Amino acid sequence: MLISKLPQSGTTIFTVMSALAKASQAINLAQGFPDFPISNQLISEVQQAMLQGMNQYAPMTGLPELRQALSEKIKTCYACSVDAENEITITPGATYAIYSAFATLLQAGDEVIVLEPAYDSYIPNILLHGGIPVCVPLQAPTFQVNWQRVYDAVSDKTKAIIINTPHNPCGSVWSHDDFVQLEQLLDKHPMYVVSDEVYEHITFDAHQHHSVLKYPAIYQKAFVVFSFGKVFHTTGWKLGYCVAPADLSNEFRKIHQYLAFSCNTPMQFAMSRFLAQPQEYLNLPSFFEAKRNLFLKLIADLPFTLHAPSQGTYFQTLGYEQISMENDMDFATRLTKAYGVATIPLSAFYQNKEDNRLIRFCFAKQDSTLQAAAHRLQALKSI
Ligand code: PMP
Ligand code: GLN
Q1: What is the pTM of this model?
Q2: CB burial class (10 A; 0-12, 13-18, 19+) of residue 40?
Q3: d(CA 31, ligand 2 centre) in Å
């Protein structure tokens, strides 16, 4: 008899809501992906790579020219020197890199501190490797880290903490002070860090991304995870990378070599060429800030509660308690079916399915898509 490795898991909320959006012909502001075209130049770089015969296995750790380009990017963005040969591993997406980091780190019974709400793959990944997630709530409505509660969660079994900034789904961004607090925590209680920084280039207003890579005392114990999907609007290409000190990368690669072994060669080549144009990612804050502002303007007279404008990512979380007392899954389902706009209920990001009557909207969409969604939502005013 097959014994489920994940008896508590169903199908991910992103799959569920995207399928419901399709079946209901709803506008999909649920799953996080852009609906606008990607760069033609990036596409032609892939075509050229394929035509030039780059169609066989790439080296296990990633194409050397891509790792070199990333090492230079990291130096420019975070003033951090990482060795392209020994500290960067190209992976088939960030989800895979997070999974592999936990596979590298965890022995049965190890505890991992998870700040909730948390991206939905973290806890199943920890459980699959015999780990025990120890959840610490982020403080609503701004979802700041309460460091005292993090200290309270530490035990002699604590092996790691997973952090995510800019934060999906809350749109909060860690301050320099948060990183200093993390540094102090590691000093008092040595543990590893898995840092999910896939939205590194999407921050708004005065907020800046402070990567773990800027803090050497943290980096020496860290796996820092990035995704090309969020930077170049190519979520369907499933390409990312993990930056970790050589000793940690060495163990990470032992697992990667038996899991995916290597990643898509022409895409890696195209990314290595495209990274030579930093304006592609340096323009992202203003590009997405305009989308956030448009979205907030469009929904300003609707009966949602805006607890805080998104500081980063391409998500905005809103309260709906003025509209309905339904639980968030029922409300998000009804919003999709009856009003034609799909969103993500925040309970999906909690192990115990905590429900604070919040839903997440993705604003990485063409202006016309956001306008059409807001138009449909006008019907909520007459409730
Ligand atoms: N972490 C977070 C916080 C995300 O929102 C996502 C979704 N892109 C991922 C990881 C996964 O990224 P990828 O598609 O590269 O696996
Ligand atoms: N990261 C995306 C989101 O938060 C979805 C990724 C996925 O579908 N697994 O919406």
Answers
A1: 0.98
A2: exposed
A3: 5
